[in-house]
Amino acid sequence: MLNCRYNATVEALTPNGYYVAYDGWGNREEVDPDNVRLLEEEAADALRQAEKEAEATKMAIKRKIEQAATSDFQARSLPAKLRIEPSDPEDVKAAKRKKIHAFKSKARFEQLEFAQNKRQNAWQQFQTTKGKAKKVGFFSGRKKESIFKSPDDHRGKVGVTGSGKGLTDFQRREKHLHLKGGSADALDDEE
């Protein structure tokens, strides 16, 4: 006898043992009580804890995306120590100009990065919400057929969609009588 163990859920107690459904396999079976043992509680608790942590991380990322999408860029003003005073010597003015240039360049890159992150977060938010809603419509539940499948008819061509089927059969057209208060049987009775 093989000493294999599979995770299963006990569905019912029977006179001969337990009726179990195997997790992940989908099949059910009646097993001997000697072949059933409890799943280690520590392993189950660790699995539940890992699932909670994964859910918390997912929600934190979602909150961060939403927060970044709603916040606006705050432009920083030039610090007072970098303002050029008329009384400053030329070498100090040159040094301050370099620092002002670096400050403005850094602020511009931060603004560009913020705009890029905002677009990226908007796209990520769109991607996460896009898959949740199912499309309801005329062709939504229909399976797509490959254009390369071979046709059912021996006269059909491979790669030509709908080949070998022939023309659509329509009903034979007949004249339709519109009667105001009766049926066609009432018309026949009067004659």
TrEMBL record:
* Protein's cellular compartments: Nucleus
Q: Where is the composition biased (Basic and acidic residues)?
A: 144-156
Keyword Aminoacyl-tRNA synthetase recorded = no
Where is this protein chiefly located?
Answer: nucleus
Per the record's keyword annotation, is Magnesium included, yes or no?
no
Going by the UniProt record, its keywords in alphabetical order are:
Coiled coil, Nucleus
Q: Quote a single Gene Ontology cellular component term.
A: nucleus
Q: Which residues form a coiled coil?
A: 36-67
Chain spans, region Disordered: 144-191
Q: What is this protein called?
A: Tudor domain-containing protein
Organism whose genome encodes this protein: Setaria italica (Foxtail millet)
